[in-house]
Amino acid sequence: MSVAALPLPESRPVLRERGQREVFCGLTGIVWLHRKIQDAFFLVVGSRTCAHLLQSAAGVMVFAEPRFATAIIEERDLAGLADANEELDKVVNRLLLRRPEIRQLFLVGSCPSEVIKIDLKRAAERMNAIHAPRVRVLNYSGSGIETTFTQGEDACLAALVPEMPADDAEQLLIVGALPDVVEDQFLRLFAELGIANVKVLPARRSTHLPGVGKGTRFLLAQPFLGDTGQALEGRGARHLPALFPFGAEGTTAWLEAAATAFGVDPMHFRSVVAPGRERAKRAIARQAEVLRGKSIFFMPDSQLEVPLARFLHDELGMELVEVGTPYLHKSHLAAELKALPADVQLSEGQDVDLQLDRVRAARPDLTVCGLGLANPLEQEGLATKWAIELVFTPVHGFDQAGDLAELFARPLVRRDRLVL
C-alpha cells in the first residue's frame, strides 16, 4: 500500500491510494450493453461465480432468454483434461445455431479465463474465419482484477473501434452507451442545431456501426471511456473537450462544444437549448431545497464521481468533503476539475480502510459508495447512495436533470422520515 500526492496542472493536490478496493468487476457492463446493442450476444468465459454475478445484477428471471451467458470453466478445463478452446468452439457453435438472430458475438474475458491464459483474441479470430460475415466475433476483457466495473463498457467500445469503416466525412460522434430515450433527446437537439451528420457508438445494431476518420469529432457521454477515446484518436478522430452532460450547466456546455466545432450561430444555439435548460433548472430547484448546504463524500467506484460532484456543488449547493475516483483521466476531466472548488480533497484509487476512516471522521450527510459498503455505513447512522444506481438510471441531459438530483435527495428524505 502506498499513498502519495499527485499535482494537477492547476497545482491541485490529489491523494493517490493503492490498497484494498471494494468495486464490482467489469462484467457488470454487460447488463446495460446487451440492452443497447440489440443484435449482439455477450458470452463470458468464466466461472459459476461470474454467471451468478450477471444473473443477480440483471435480475434475470428463470424463463427469460437474455443475450448474455457464461461458458463455465469446469474442473476438467482447469486440470488440462479437456482442450478449453475446443470446448469453447462447441459452445459457440451451439449458441449460434440456437440464436440465428445474433449478428455480433463478444467473447468476454474474466478473472478465471485470464488466470488460466485462454487466448480469447485468437479464439475470436478463429471463429471469425468460420462465422463471418454473418456473425462478427470480437473479444474484450471484463476481468475485475485491476479494473472497476464501468471499464467493461470502455473495453467493449474500444474493441469496436478497429471494426469501424474508414470515413473522412465530417460528422459528430456521440461516444458512450446511453438509454435510447436519452440518445433520442440528444439527436433531436443536434438536429435542431443544424448538425446533420450525427452518429453514435455503440449503435443499436451492429450493422449500423459508424465510420471514423479525419472528419470525425467526438463527444464523450461518459467520463470512463479513456481507452475508447484513445482508440478513436488513433483512427484520426478529434475529441471535443467539455463538461459532461449532467445537469443544466453540464448539458449546455456539452452541447455547446459541438455547436462551436460545427459553426452553429451562438444566437441559434441559445434559442434551441433555452427551453430544455429552463426545464432542467426548475426540476433541479425542487431538489435543491433538500440538498443545499448538505455535505457529500464520494467513495471511488464508477468514475462518474468528478462530474457528479461538480453538478452537485454548482447546481445544488452541496458541500464536497472528498471526491474519490478509481482513475483520474486528467485530459477528459480537465473542464470538470477546473469547475470544482479549490479546497476539495481529490483522491485517486482506493485503500478502503483509510477512506472509511475519513468518512467516519467527517460524518458527511451523504456518502456515495458501492453496495458492499452501504449497509455497514447505514448501520453506523450514515446515509448512503449506491454508486451503481447512477449508471443504471437515465441521468444525462436536460430532461433527466431533476431525476439525477432526486437520486441524491431521496436518501436524505428517507432518513429524515425515519428519524421523525
From TrEMBL:
Domain Nitrogenase/oxidoreductase component: start-end pairs: 25-409
Name of the featured protein: Light-independent protochlorophyllide reductase subunit N
Keywords associated with the record: 4Fe-4S, ATP-binding, Bacteriochlorophyll biosynthesis, Chlorophyll biosynthesis, Iron, Iron-sulfur, Metal-binding, Nucleotide-binding, Oxidoreductase, Photosynthesis
EC nos: 1.3.7.7
Coiled coil: none
Cofactor requirements of the protein: [4Fe-4S] cluster
Organism: Polymorphobacter multimanifer
Purpose: Component of the dark-operative protochlorophyllide reductase (DPOR) that uses Mg-ATP and reduced ferredoxin to reduce ring D of protochlorophyllide (Pchlide) to form chlorophyllide a (Chlide). This reaction is light-independent. The NB-protein (BchN-BchB) is the catalytic component of the complex.
Keyword Nucleotide-binding tagged: yes
Enzyme class, first EC level, given as a word: oxidoreductase
Domain of life: Bacteria
